[in-house]
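WARN  no MSA supplied for this record, continuing single-sequence
INFO  ligand: flavin-adenine dinucleotide
INFO  echoing inputs
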Amino acid sequence: MKGHKDVWIVGETKDGKIESVTFELVTAGKALAQALSEKLVSIFLGNGIEEEARNLFSYGVEEVYVLENPELANYNLDLYGTCLEKVISEKKPRIVLLGHTDMGAELGPVIAFRLGTSIVTDCVELAIDESKGFLLRTKPIQGGVALGVFRDEGLPQMATIRRKSFLPAERVTDSYQDVSVMNVDLSGVRKRIHLLDRIKEETAGVKLEDAEIIVAGGRGIGDAEGFKVLDELARYLKGALGASRAACDNGWVPTSIQIGITGKIVAPRVYIAVGISGASQHMSGCSRARTIVAINKDPNAPIFKQSHFGVIGDWKIVVPAFLDKLKSLE
Ligand SMILES: Cc1cc2nc3c(=O)[nH]c(=O)nc-3n(C[C@H](O)[C@H](O)[C@H](O)COP(=O)(O)OP(=O)(O)OC[C@H]3O[C@@H](n4cnc5c(N)ncnc54)[C@H](O)[C@@H]3O)c2cc1C
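INFO  complex generated
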């Protein structure tokens, strides 16, 4: 690893604000930096984001670089790829982490290829191999039935991380330092991709990934009508509706709300699982919830072993009664 040191995270911003995935990268990167006794460094690309990027110091990041240019205001593979390749080649970080987002999932492999190293995408766990100091990257494989741990010797060691696999970092200090701003010249870069328009996705209610409370239903709900009752509860709690794969496969709800290893990973404050047995593929998508409440008519359902609170009963009785009680408390 001669010459390569420090753990870098590639931060993301949207409309001038740091995106939440960046704070998850801070958590992931900090653990690795501590294990290696090296620095945690963040790099941003954008325009006019210096002040916002400075905030990362208060989350424990030790150095912040910002590559500034009006052309970097929106993500562009050609421009971001060229800038990052250059700065990574010069500064030689040991580890580079990106979010497995629209940006990171595209940019990461391109940079890895250009730098002649490898990357493991969509990782859910990261660790340092104590004997040699290599990055161990864990990701679901074979359609989510197993986890694979990857290690290689290419430098820098790169990975993209799946959203919500790491808790967002918390503010640890009020001290700020100066951001290292690099004004980059993009005049020679061939820009093959042009942003024509940005269309905001319309979501009714709270987005599943951002919801503080999720009410999720499984096969035990029985049909699409049953999900309307869960949806009413979710809306009442200002939360979002989720589902197990069995419910999605039955066509009762869209697959976009499937939670689990082959669906979305969520980390709400409260996860109410209704008529869900607790299969490992489902639980790996919701186990980061702070509180899991299970409603199931089978007292031996595996989900009761993983939930903080359990209600044994038919959801058709329990859920409407719960909703009535909530309404009566208003
Ligand atoms: C490669 C692979 C990937 C997978 N990925 C995912 C994934 O991402 N997400 C996912 O969810 N699954 C996934 N699965 C499927 C997973 O293994 C389970 O089959 C699935 O999660 C089961 O869904 P369920 O709990 O809704 O159904 P079931 O296991 O059938 O459980 C239904 C539960 O409802 C209860 N119930 C029935 N009626 C009532 C009632 N009236 N009131 C209260 N409770 C009731 C039952 O007691 C039972 O516990 C995957 C499987 C494979 C092989």
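The longest helix spans residues 20-36.
INFO  checksum written, moving to next record
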